[in-house]
């Protein structure tokens, strides 16, 4: 096993499961700190701010600072900020997305938008969907934070941002540009921040379809851990194998 100089790490299913602690996670992060290996938490969740995500991690005894967290909200904001400084954006989303856009200097507007950006919004209304469709038909470019059709909760799977995005896409006939995992946009943005060479950076996650596929598409080595969505019995049916797979992150610590 080669030495990795940087780690991109998924959250839900890898660092915790919903509101449930994963015992190996704090030990894994402390091992990275002891070895002075940089890491960045990578999440498709665009609804929370860096501070809110950091507080959740700290609540599970996982060492984290705001700057260690990179969400699709931040990735989308930085991606659009480089495309058009101060771009006018019609935004469907929650605090995390609005906060990231404001920090990037993007203008959140209700009409005449350059971009329509959709993130998970648990206060979604028909009027918001209608306004997004009108802006896209008027020429705004269509961006979505991620394509997750469903998100896990303690009582089952809830509609994800991909489901909201699909409604707008079906109405307008326009396919969006997706930013989050498994797409390469969030990976490229994250690599700029962590500053390590792609050949020496590894993506760690529990979900083959998002985390592991994101790493594979971006040309990174990958580590799949069986503490979340993907299970060990799935391994034989995967089209592209992860570079490594372990039952828990404790197994990985022994190899570092």
UniProtKB/TrEMBL annotation:
For this protein, what is the EC number? Answer: 3.1.3.-
Keywords, comma-separated and alphabetical: Hydrolase, Magnesium, Metal-binding
Q: Which cofactor does it need?
A: Mg(2+)
GO molecular function list: hydrolase activity
Coiled-coil annotation reads: none
Which EC class is this protein assigned?
hydrolase
What is the documented function of this protein? Answer: Catalyzes the dephosphorylation of 2-6 carbon acid sugars in vitro.
Family, according to the entry, reads as follows: Belongs to the HAD-like hydrolase superfamily. NagD family.
What is the name listed in the Swiss-Prot or TrEMBL entry for this protein? Acid sugar phosphatase
Q: What is the lineage of its organism?
A: Bacteria, Bacillati, Bacillota, Bacilli, Bacillales
């Amino acid at each position: 096993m080669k030495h990795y100089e940087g780690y991109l790490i998924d959250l839900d299913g890898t660092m915790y499961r919903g509101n449930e602690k994963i015992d190996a996670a704090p030990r894994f992060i402390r091992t990275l700190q002891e070895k002075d290996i940089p890491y960045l938490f990578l999440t498709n969740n665009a609804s929370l701010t860096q501070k809110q995500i950091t507080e959740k991690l700290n609540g599970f005894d996982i060492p984290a600072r705001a700057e260690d967290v990179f969400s699709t909200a931040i990735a989308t904001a930085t991606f659009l900020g480089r495309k058009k400084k101060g771009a006018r954006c019609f935004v469907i989303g929650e605090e995390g997305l609005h906060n990231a856009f404001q920090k990037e200097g993007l203008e959140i507007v209700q009409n005449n938008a350059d971009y329509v950006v959709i993130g998970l919004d648990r206060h979604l209304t028909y009027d918001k969907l209608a306004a997004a469709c009108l802006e896209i038909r008027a020429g705004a470019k269509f961006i979505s934070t991620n394509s997750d059709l469903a998100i896990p909760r303690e009582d089952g799977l809830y509609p994800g941002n991909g489901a909201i995005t699909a409604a707008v896409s079906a109405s307008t006939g326009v396919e969006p540009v997706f930013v989050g995992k498994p797409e390469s946009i969030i990976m490229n943005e994250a690599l700029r921040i962590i500053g390590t060479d792609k050949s020496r950076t590894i993506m760690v996650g529990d979900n083959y379809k998002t985390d592991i596929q994101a790493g594979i598409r971006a040309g990174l080595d990958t580590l799949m851990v069986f503490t979340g969505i993907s299970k060990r019995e799935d391994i034989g049916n995967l089209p592209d194998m992860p570079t490594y797979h372990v039952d828990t992150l404790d197994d990985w610590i022994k190899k570092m």
